[in-house]
Amino acid sequence: MRTKGWQKVFSFTLIQYIKTKSFIIGTIIVCLIVALIACGVNIIPALLNGEEDNTGNPSAGTLGAFSAIYITDDAGILTDEDAAALTAAGAKLEQTELSFSELTEKLKNAEDGRALVTITPETAETDEVVGYTVKTYYSPNSDGDSVDTLSASIRELINYRNMINAGVSPENYMQTQRYITSSKIEAGVSEWSVFESMINYLVPIVVSLVLFILIFAYGQTVAQSIATEKTSRVMELLLTSVRPLAVVIGKVLAMGIVSFGQFLLIGIVGTAGFLISAPFGIGGQLMQMMNDPEIAQLAAGGSEQAEMAQALSSSFGSVNPLTIILIIVIFILGFLFFSLIAALVGASISRMEDLQQAMQPYALLGLLGLYLAYFPVMFNLESMENGVAASNPIQIFSYYFPISSPFALPSALLLGSLDMVQAVIAVLILAAFVVLIAIVVGKVYEGIILHNGSRIKLGDIFKMAFRK
User: How far apart are CA 364 and CA 342, in angstroms?
Assistant: First the structure.
């Protein structure tokens, strides 16, 4: 049989790879990083939200955070009443005779929070004032939120004073302040909340990037392993007891077990870190809310955490054991698809110096798959408003195209963008192409593994594949 002896290659490659110091140390470091990230996702937001300033200093995002505020009103729009309103809001206004350059120099060297606001009128050709330009200069130690608050307060006062000067009474001014929101919603599609939009926007990007790194990195390892053994003449020793095709099958399967095992270990460590830190962070609160039968009432009452928990429940509500199994199958098929191609690339070179150049087409192929899975979501801003992301034609294509489906399908299954029938069809298409690639590799592998001349070009490999 052409594949006889693959078990020996499989066991040898598996044992040798997991015993290497680089694999052991790398796995430990990655697990520690993932655990820290999982804990940080829980604890850091809780610390930021629950942090109280007990030092007596003004809270961030308030006018009182500045020790001094200077206002240069060249438009003459603000009045003493407006200055009194700023003072009542906590602003420490100061008069100064310093010039603009002297003031900015003073702010530049200030050790505390200080700000200078300039108001300049914009006029038309008839010298009629048509607008105002507000610039806020702040010292290096100023709080960014407080700077935004100051700038917004000045703009609001200018708008108020402008309308009062136009004849609008103070009583009627508030009647003019109404905000308007707009959105586009496809008929029959459920409207997303802000949290649902973010989840459906970020999950495909993160999942596709993670799977790309895993599949692509381990695929390169397969190519490097085969190329190393070929150039060091170890391959010639292997071929005395096993067939060439058995070598590539054994190595690809061994690296598949290693990659899946390492990925599973990292996932377990990350999940454990999240669960252990959940009682001390927002994760525990969200998980409790997701199981709370009164969550709908909490969300209706305006609870931000309840809305977030409801969004998580809505976005990942379709996840079930069959979904997890399909995701695992997709990962395995995607790994086999790219690893078989990588093995062919590794076997096509005769010198290790040629490996990097030979891997360029492989890299471009992987980037194409990532691009199709990643960028349709990234640039589909309409998905931030409603649930129409799945109607993006390019994204639908990425689910069925075997080069991109390993990166696009898992997130689609997690978020319920595809029903189970569509997902099974996409997986069957990917499996069919894996079989096709395996047949092509089997047809040309034996012809190139013992080649020791110049690097075999891609066109030559295609000719060998279609040769009868």
Answer: 12
For residue 54, the SS3 value is coil
Unique residue bearing structure tokens 């709080």: 143
Q: Residue 417, class by beta-carbon neighbours within 10 Å (0-12 exposed, 13-18 middle, 19+ buried)?
A: buried
C-alpha–C-alpha distance, residues 121 and 75, integer Å: 5
d(CA 204, CA 356): 29
> Please, are residues 408 and 398 in contact by the beta-carbon 8 Å criterion?
yes
Burial zone of 43 (CB within 10 Å; 0-12 exposed, 13-18 middle, 19+ buried): middle
> Which residue type occupies 465?
A
Considering only CA atoms, give the Rg of the chain: 31
Look up residue 176 and give its DSSP letter: G
Listing DSSP states for 278-340 in one string gives GGGSHHHHHHHHHT-TTHHHHHHTT-HHHHHHHHHHHHSTT--HHHHHHHHHHHHHHHHHHHH
- Report helix, strand or coil for 405: helix
Domains and CATH numbers, the chain: 6-39+192-466 (no CATH), 63-174 (3.40.190)
- With a cut of 70, list the residues of the chain below it in pLDDT: 1-3, 45-61, 179, 181-204, 229-241, 244-245, 281-319, 376-392, 445-468
**Is residue 468 packed enough to be buried (19+ CB in 10 Å), middle (13-18) or exposed (0-12)?**
exposed
Whether residue 282 contacts residue 42, with contact meaning beta carbons closer than 8 Å, is answered with yes
